[in-house]
Amino acid sequence: MGGMNEIRTTAVVLAAGQGKRMQSSVHKQYLLIGDKPVLYYSLKAFEDSIIDDIVLVVGKGEEEYCQGEILDKYGFRKIRAVICGGKERYHSVACGIRSIHWECGYIFIHDGARPFIDDAVIDRAFEEVKRSRACVVGMPVKDTIKIADEKGYVESTPDRSRIWQIQTPQVFEKPLIAAAYEKLLAQENRLSEQGVTVTDDAMLVETFMNVPVKLVQGSYQNIKITTPEDLKIAEALV
User: Fold this and answer.
1) Omega into 169 within 30° of 0, i.e. cis?
2) Which residue among 19, 86, 91, 186 has its CA within the 20 to 30 Å range from the CA of 97?
3) Rounded to the nearest 5°, which phi and psi values hold at 104?
4) Do 106 and 186 meet the contact criterion of CB atoms below 8 Å apart?
């Protein structure tokens, strides 16, 4: 298990989302699949993997709930910190990265609402980040994709064989992703005035650090729980 790597790895697991599309008063990461919360499954995958440490980023005021209902209840041992996230996803990631005060060479950034991450994907990503410094997990799209114009007409049809649907974890050398996030936060106001939205960690490394990001094969089961339909699919997969 963890500790066998010469270079320590930390997973930053994001569970601060509101889950507005779920039409539920309970945040999606705490909804049950089988008899366990969505968040349990990704934490368990990292707990049982090569990952050394875990930072859990939760919504404001949810730290105590998480500590009692998830960490203590299921006996997670690798979680070094439970911290409060920020307004947007990228604020939460930045909080997670800034909280790592221990030795860490690589950071795995993962959405807590993706419960079906597994060992094989984590291992593939780890092998790749050691070679490439930055990599993201994803899968080639199965459907034809169309680019729309402002009026809702088809503008173009990109070559499907070159299009990937990006998942998480997204994995980086710690100094690389930490510097990218500091640059983002320094330019945050200007970017938001320009209407730039940041939904992807790799985008920052590509943009601010000028480092290419390698694609790593994930899994078609590595779905994100976003809508009530996803929860039904997740029930079937469990």
Assistant:
1) yes
2) 19
3) -155, 125
4) no
Closest to 121 in 3D by CA, of 200, 31, 50: 50
Contact 107, 10 (CB under 8 A): yes
Give the 3-state DSSP-derived string for 5-52, with helices as H, strands as E and coil as C.
Answer: CCCCEEEEEEECCCCHHHCCCCCHHHCEECCEEHHHHHHHHHHCCCCC
Q: What is the DSSP letter of 160?
A: G
Residue 168 near residue 137, CB atoms below 8 Å: yes
Calculate mean pLDDT across residues 109-119: 95
79 φ, ψ (degrees, to nearest 5) = -80, 110
pLDDT digits (tens, 9 = 90+) for 9-55: 999 999 987 655 545 555 667 778 788 988 999 999 999 999 999 99
The single-letter code of the amino acid at 49 is S
Q: Is the pTM of this model over 0.85?
A: yes
How many other CB atoms are found less than 10 A from the CB of residue 125? Answer: 26
Q: Which residues of 70-80 are buried (b: 16+ CB within 10 A; e: fewer)?
A: bbeeeebebbb
**How far is residue 3 from each of residues 27, 78, 85, 103, measured CA to CA in Å?**
33, 11, 27, 12
